[in-house]
Amino acid sequence: MDDIPRNVFRKLINHFRSLGLKLLELHGSANSLAGGVAIGIFVGFTPFFGLKTLICLGVAYILRCNPIAAVIAVTLHDVCTPLWPVILEIEYQIGSWILNLLNITPNMTGAKSFQFSDLMEWKTFLDIVLPMLLGSLFLSAPSALISYLVTYRIFKCREVRRAALVEAESP
After folding, report:
1. How many helices (H) and strands (E) does the chain have?
2. pLDDT (tens digit, 9 = 90+) per residue, 106-145?
3. Distance between CA atoms of 152 and 30, rounded to whole angstroms?
4. pLDDT tens, position by position, 5-30
5. With 0-12 CB in 10 A as exposed, 13-18 as middle and 19+ as buried, what is 73?
6. How far is CA 26 from CA 38, 69, 147, 164, in A?
7. Please, are residues 36 and 60 in contact by the beta-carbon 8 Å criterion?
8. What are phi and psi of 112, to 5 degrees?
9. What is the pTM of this model?
10. Is the Cβ–Cβ distance between 76 and 19 less than 8 Å?
11. What is the dihedral of CA 127, 55, 29, 148, to 10 degrees?
């Protein structure tokens, strides 16, 4: 019985490792690839479940970054899935605090009074999703900046190594 969770855990680790390797195998400029990764990480923190891949593709196209790098990065961001309840709560608290500073107070909806049908109402968007979206900016922006700087350096070093190999092979 203990082998099943261990095998599942290994498969997940191998899956995310293969995504990281695919990211490193992409071709393009260091700026384009790092921009795609930053877009993927940024969008990964937003509360738009099910739309993140489409948003990544659109933003990467508009900003002329590598869309495949953006999609791989948003998929790699799914490593945080077990932490989503905590992350969403933090985003909601930060967003509510900011809205309170701006004298825009969201209606605190209790979990007991919340119905599934309430998800399709604008009031729910303004009371729950807007604070989460605003709070997600404070987690996603620094994460995207750090991921851009780290991956830019990695892709730039790879670019220099490839150029040196090509130069060494040419007669």
Report:
1. 7, 0
2. 655 554 566 666 666 666 667 778 888 999 999 999 999 9
3. 6
4. 777 778 777 877 887 777 777 888 99
5. buried
6. 15, 8, 16, 18
7. yes
8. -75, -30
9. 0.80
10. yes
11. 20
CA distance 10 to 81: 16
Please tell me the number of Cα atoms within 13 Å of 144 on its side-chain side: 21
Give the pair of three-digit tokens for residue 50: 């099910």
Tokens, residue 170: 């040419």
Q: Read off the DSSP letter of residue 107.
A: P
Largest Cα separation within the chain, whole Å, is 75
Could you tell me how many residues make up the chain? 171
Closest Cα partner for 140 from 55, 61, 68?
Answer: 55
